[in-house]
Amino acid sequence: MSLVEIREISKSYGAVQVLKGVSLDVTKGEVVAVIGRSGSGKSTLLRCVNGLEVIQAGTIRVDGVQVNDPATDLRKLRQQVGIVFQSFNLFPHLSVCDNITLAPRVVKKQAPEQAREIARDVLRRVGLEGKLDAFPSQLSGGQQQRVAIARSLAMQPKLMLFDEVTSALDPELTGEVLKVLESVAQEGMTMILVTHEMGFARRFGSRVVFMHEGRIHEEGQAAAVLAEPQTPELKTFLSAVLH
Ligand SMILES: Nc1ncnc2c1ncn2[C@@H]1O[C@H](COP(=O)(O)OP(=O)(O)O)[C@@H](O)[C@H]1O
Ligand SMILES: [Mg+2]
User: Fold this and answer.
1) Alpha helices of 84-242 — where are they, by DSSP H?
2) Does the pLDDT of residue 29 top 80, yes or no?
3) Which range marks the domain in which residue 43 is found?
4) Percent of the chain having pLDDT more than 90?
5) Of 10, 71, 113, 232, whose Cβ has the fewest other Cβ atoms within 10 Å?
6) Which of 11, 12, 17, 18 to mutate to test the pocket of ligand 1 (most atoms within 8 A of CB)?
7) Residue 177 near residue 198, CB atoms below 8 Å
8) Which residues line ligand 1 (CB under 6 A)?
9) From the alpha carbon of 37, which atom of ligand 1 is closest?
10) How many domains in the chain?
């Protein structure tokens, strides 16, 4: 069964249609890499899955729950669907521990001790054990992004959405964040990630989805799609990002 079911969704901002009938299924444990030019609708698609955007047509279900049903409790949904952005959005005045435990304590009513234990666990999973009491300003950009990923993991989501999480980082910091994504994927997390890292997409995107002008223009197994693009648009895109 699909964990994520996106059926013919349409999204407009005013008169501008940004998603033009997008359908996508993601099964449990699958990693789907979304690629495409700037403005093709990748971020909008992720934001729709998380219920951050209202859609005009179609349906989105996550684990059977219809995201675009006004009766759906979006706060509850977002406990199950983590999203990490390019900008880390950590609270600068809070310690790493407090950044990670804030939502579990407020939303899930976790006791401080329990929340701290979970924070310890998720920090270990992103390779930052020992940084529990550090402040964001004391960390590199790559470490801050790993804390942002840990914060999302602390909610124990069923699905994680990553929107160009390495784009703001220097190349040497990109690698450490990609490694964390790899290990989260290996733990069995279902992931949809927008990325320009084609090497990563090839190794870990079990499937690649190429978006072009608000539609899924081409999709398939990563190795095949990247090695043998079928459409001129994907060929052009790949030659631009690979060279
Ligand atoms: N809040 C918004 N209001 C109006 N237009 C928007 C908004 N967000 C995105 N868009 C437009 O929607 C299109 C797709 O954007 P986006 O999903 O961010 O693309 P991508 O992530 O692929 O670069 C772009 O043309 C963008 O300008
Ligand atoms: Mg984007």
Assistant:
1) 96-106, 112-125, 141-153, 171-186, 198-204, 222-227, 232-242
2) yes
3) 2-242
4) 86
5) 71
6) 18
7) no
8) 13, 18, 36, 38-44
9) 22
10) 1
